[in-house]
Amino acid sequence: MATLYRKYRSRRFEDVIGQDPIVRTLENQIKLGRVGHAYLFTGSRGIGKTSCARIFARAVNCLHPVNGSPCGECEACKALSSPENVDIIELDAASNNGVDDARDIREKVKYMPVVGKYKVYIIDEAHMLTGGAFNALLKTLEEPPAHVIFILATTEPQKLPQTILSRCIRFDFKLVSVDELAKHVARVYDAEGIKYTPEAAREIARLGEGSVRDALSIADTIASAAELITPEVVLQLTGSGDADGISELFDCAATGDVAGALVAIDGFAKAGKSMFAVCRQVTDYSRNVLVLKSVGAQKSVEHGLINADKATLGRITASAGKADLDRISRILEHFGAAESGLKYSVNPRVFLETALVKLVCGVDEQDLAKRITALERKLANNPLPAGQKKNITTAVEPPAHTAVHAPQKAEKTVQNAPSASDAYEPEPPPPPDYMTESAPSAAKNPPKASQYAAAERQPPKSIVKAPDVKEFAESVKSADEGEFMHFSATKVSGMELIGAIAKFLRKKGTAGAARARELLSRGVAVKERDDYISFVVPDEIYLSVSDKPVIDELNAALDGIGIEKRAAVDKTAEDLLQDDIARARELFGRDGVTYARR
């Protein structure tokens, strides 16, 4: 006995369900005699691609077609229905995908049909053909003999070369709706004399996922399970969870009830349910809850967005009231991701339980991002008091035992700043002047005995490694980001001053102001010097900020916020130590720079 999907395969265009636009087009081509030479039927599995190809192949050869469909009574229809006919050739490209197979087709197309008007080649799973096979068929597919028609069927049209796609009349078959599938299952059960409930037929249609063949295969599996086919029987044999259990699992995930969720999964496992099927059902249920929460129950039903009976709709409505859209979206994303992972998991139950615990107990990344953004905004609008900010000297002093060469203009220091002795431990005394880079050579000025004696009289001190350039630069950078003290801007920090300047430039709205504002956002610090406002910038944007139009915009901004000193640009301490020793000594003191470079 043939299976149901083979026994009830469509024989005429009227028997094809869910593909009305395609069927109507093919029927009109038969009626009007506008038959093409190459067709491409694409779409998911089990929705009628091969069936339509066979019907069309018989229809173009039928002597007396009825409304575009083969009559089934003429000699041509009877001959073509026989397995021995040689005018309709079906090829499985999955097993006949080589160049030699394509060349064989190319050699045989020149022979005339035996019974009908056309010789039709139906190439199923066409995406499995190799590149060489496609190239061998290319010219024949473009200009075949007048008596040849090619029909290519595939579930993956994206794998076909564009040169093939452009030579075919393409029809995209769609998935069949649950309502149409339920009616089809009911017709088949009625024809077979099988008792069923409408809910059972609908559940079978839902499990078919739009595929007629899958739905009839499930119906065939359940046909002998009981005298009366009910939804419970369907769920038991397909390994799916019951509707109440699925809604309960979703509610536990929505309310954060880990224990309840694990108990629900345990119940499914003890009942022998498939974890993959359960995960897919929760995903579908979450989707329905999301739709209902977004557009409302009435519109969801009116527009066909949710296909559910009254009981299921009531459960979905109740679940929608237990979570907001963000939470529902997270549930949908997590179970959707788990669904793909379950296919390859060796322990599906553990995989699903782990995914569920991560969902309930894990960190909500969106919520965390919102909280971080809110904190950043709060800190920007309400900076810390001056007493809580990091205060250090604006210039690092050398250790007490070294000779101090004060700069021309002394820097202002922030109150309560730690001394240099706190920042560095003492080190051995510096070498005599004749050993420094600025002293004459030792050959011209040999050391005197008194110099050695003075060095030996120094008290012993702990020997420590001097800080490197980067450490010194970091300390100076901290000073540059410290307090900004000005008579017209008391208790204004450097960051606040940059914020005020940026706000002024944004309000100004000119192109030059926009460029200056953009440069300020690229790691610029501000420091008040004795006679100017220093904008401390990285080396890579030094030239850009030093440009006269940018300096003019910064000066205008300083005027706008009531600061009289003019803007100037300095490199960061690290860049100055690398590039401009003289300028570094001028800003930070000769001995501090020498100490950091040793």
Condensed summary:
This protein has 598 residues and is an alpha/beta fold.
CATH class of the largest domain: Alpha Beta
Largest sheet: 5 strands, parallel
- Estimate the strand proportion: 5-15%
Please state how the strands of the largest beta sheet are arranged side by side. 2-3-4-1-5
CATH topology of the largest domain, anyone?
Answer: Rossmann fold
What secondary-structure arrangement, pairings included, does this model have?
Elements: H1 4-7, H2 20-32, E1 38-42, H3 49-61, H4 75-81, E2 88-92, H5 99-108, E3 119-124, H6 131-142, E4 148-154, H7 162-165, E5 169-172, H8 178-192, E6 195-196, H9 198-208, H10 212-222, E7 228-229, H11 231-238, H12 243-255, H13 258-270, H14 275-295, H15 297-302, H16 310-320, H17 325-342, H18 348-361, H19 365-381, H20 420-423, H21 449-456, H22 469-480, E8 483-484, E9 492-493, H23 494-508, H24 511-520, E10 525-528, E11 532-537, H25 542-546, H26 548-560, E12 566-571, H27 573-579, H28 581-588, H29 590-597
Parallel strand pairs: 1-4, 1-5, 2-3, 3-4, 6-7, 11-12
Antiparallel strand pairs: 8-9, 10-11
Helix pairs in contact: 2-3, 5-6, 8-9, 8-10, 9-10, 9-11, 12-13, 12-14, 12-16, 13-18, 14-16, 14-17, 17-18, 22-27, 23-24, 23-26, 24-26, 28-29
